[in-house]
Fold this sequence. Notes:
Low-confidence stretches of chain A: none
Radius of gyration of chain A: 13 Å
Largest interface: A-B, 20 and 20 residues
Distance between the termini of chain A: 9 Å
CATH class of chain A: Alpha Beta
Oligomer: homodimer
Strand content of chain A: 35-45%
Order of helices and strands of chain A: EHEEHHE
Structural class of chain A: alpha+beta
Largest sheet of chain A: 4 strands, antiparallel
Helix content of chain A: 25-40%
Amino acid sequence: MIKIVAKNYVKPECVQAFKDTAKELIEKSRAEEGNIFYTLNVSVNDPNTLVFIENWKDQAAIESHNKSEHFTGIVPKLGQLCAREGEVELFVEI
Amino acid sequence: MIKIVAKNYVKPECVQAFKDTAKELIEKSRAEEGNIFYTLNVSVNDPNTLVFIENWKDQAAIESHNKSEHFTGIVPKLGQLCAREGEVELFVEI
């Protein structure tokens, strides 16, 4: 299993819009065959840091997700709501 | 639900010892009433970065975990296997 922790540094005035825009991405990603969980979270230290914490069956599942219409269509919209570039980290479960 | 992402920068020669020492912590943490999942993961970018990714029912569950014998007994042992101080981040699921 491969987990993704994807941090988004959202413009303070865009936090609600980010949550609203992410809803479809969350629902459609959860419906993918290779998805185990897909969650949106807020940092306890910063209400403008919104973090996707995801779990995928394998690398093929992530590649399929990255090519999906909901990913390629919605992720750029989320990026426009951010103050600066985020960080994406991948971890393999031991 | 509250997720914890706890990064450990392990000494290269201590990675196996870290995994072995963490086993009891993982088993006993998973058995706690307030735990949803508790996993150990390795960064795809660095084999010496071992990361606990955890999910807890609420803040009370985390406080109970932090006071548990397995936490207070094993976490300092894990710290001795690290090259430098790690990072712990908490996220509340939206």
